[in-house]
Design goal:
mainly alpha; Growth Hormone, Chain: A; 387 residues
Length: 387
């Protein structure tokens, strides 16, 4: 059992990183709530929006295996964290200067790439803190703070759109939260210069060997969920095109989803520690029902779909990494999280691009594609638990 002093140290570290992520999510999730309509206003089609969203996630996930490996190998976690957050944050207010969709798309992809650089190192440090106070709990707490920021960001975007009616003003406002994020990160680095004792716990040698069978089952399940999960850029594009939800209300819908994710991520993390991985099945079954509501219903049904969509986001971010930490040796977690995210991102890119194409052809086919893929993930959770 961990000593009280070690538990306090771990809690303080997770709390500080959680506050960093609160400001980070406020910034980029606020931007993501209007990215789809913004691209549409610059002349992009549904296919382009789907492609940009998918390619952005590919950039945000696809290279994480590389950065995760080198973070573990060098143990210079803070270097990757600072470099990633700087790119992740500063690309958002730069969108205020974009006057055409190719430039806007490039900045959106850079924002996702910055997240790829810092994410494996950050999650590895959080997972080590979870050793003393619970993996589900630390990832759940971090995600709850994460989603709190993600709730505030779209509301701020909606307010700016209401007052100014201009997307460029909304992106410019997020410079404030971007700087608060980087400032809080500097405070975390000051109080935890050796990453919450991570470097002291483990040697600099990256142990070779294969990942376990449960790890690969979780990898397949995660890829299926990613491929079938609708990116909000396409959802927002659909709302704008059909007029189901007005321009000013779209960010509020996103905020509702993020608030749902904040509550459910903390709940799911706690349940994972208490009840085990069986909680994954009902969580992702409910998540699979979001797309029919979002693309085939009116205002009220679409709102219900956003609640289910937010639940799915909370489940992904609070539970998948927690179960991976349980089947991966501590000194390989950066590489394990990075490799998992690479598979997740490749699947997200392929799925988002496919759904963008399907949207232009048949919404019914899009819905079937999404639901079937997500439900196919459930048996692999069962196999992972048995293994």
């Amino acid at each position: 059992m961990a000593s009280p002093s070690l538990s306090r140290l771990a809690f303080r570290f997770v709390l500080l990183i959680g506050i960093v992520n609160l400001f980070a999510d406020l910034t980029y999730e606020g931007a993501r709530s209007i990215n789809g309509p913004f691209l549409g206003s610059l002349g992009a089609s549904a296919t382009i929006v789907g492609f940009v969203a998918g390619f952005g996630e590919l950039a945000g996930y696809g290279v994480r295996s590389i950065f995760g490996y080198f973070a573990d190998k060098t143990r210079r976690y803070w270097l990757f964290v600072f470099a990633g957050y700087a790119m992740n944050m500063l690309a958002v207010p730069a969108l205020a200067l974009a006057g055409n969709w190719p430039l806007a798309a490039t900045l959106m992809i850079l924002e996702r790439t910055g997240r790829a650089i810092r994410k494996p190192a950050t999650e590895a440090m959080i997972s080590h803190a979870g050793k003393s106070i619970g993996q589900g709990w630390v990832f759940g707490l971090n995600e709850a703070l994460d989603q709190t920021g993600a709730t505030m960001g779209p509301l701020i975007a909606s307010l700016v759109l209401y007052v100014h009616g201009n997307y460029h003003h909304a992106f410019a406002v997020f410079l404030i939260s971007a700087l608060l994020c980087l400032g809080t990160l500097a405070v975390a680095r000051f109080f935890h210069p050796d990453s919450g004792e991570v470097e002291k716990k483990f040697s600099g040698t990256l142990r070779a060997g294969r990942f376990s069978k449960p790890y690969w089952f979780y990898m397949i399940a995660g890829a299926l969920i990613a491929a079938g999960f609708a990116d909000f850029s396409l959802v927002a594009f659909h709302f704008q095109k059909t007029g189901i939800v007005s321009q000013n209300v779209i960010p509020i819908f996103y905020a509702v989803a993020m608030a749902t994710g904040a509550v459910t991520s903390f709940l799911f993390g706690w349940l994972l520690d208490k009840a085990g991985s069986g909680i994954l099945l009902p969580a992702f079954f409910l998540s699979a029902l979001s797309v029919p509501c979002l693309f085939a219903g009116g205002f009220a049904v679409a709102l219900a779909g956003m609640l289910l969509w937010g639940l799915g986001m909370g489940a992904q971010d609070s539970m998948l990494k927690a179960v991976l930490a349980g089947v991966t040796p501590p000194e390989r977690r950066g590489a394990a999280f990075g490799l998992f995210d690479t598979g997740f991102g490749l699947a997200w890119f392929a799925g988002s691009a496919a759904m963008g194409l399907l949207y232009d052809q048949s919404i019914t086919a899009l819905i079937a594609f999404s639901v079937v893929l997500q439900l196919l993930a459930l048996p692999f959770f069962v196999l992972a638990r048995k293994a």
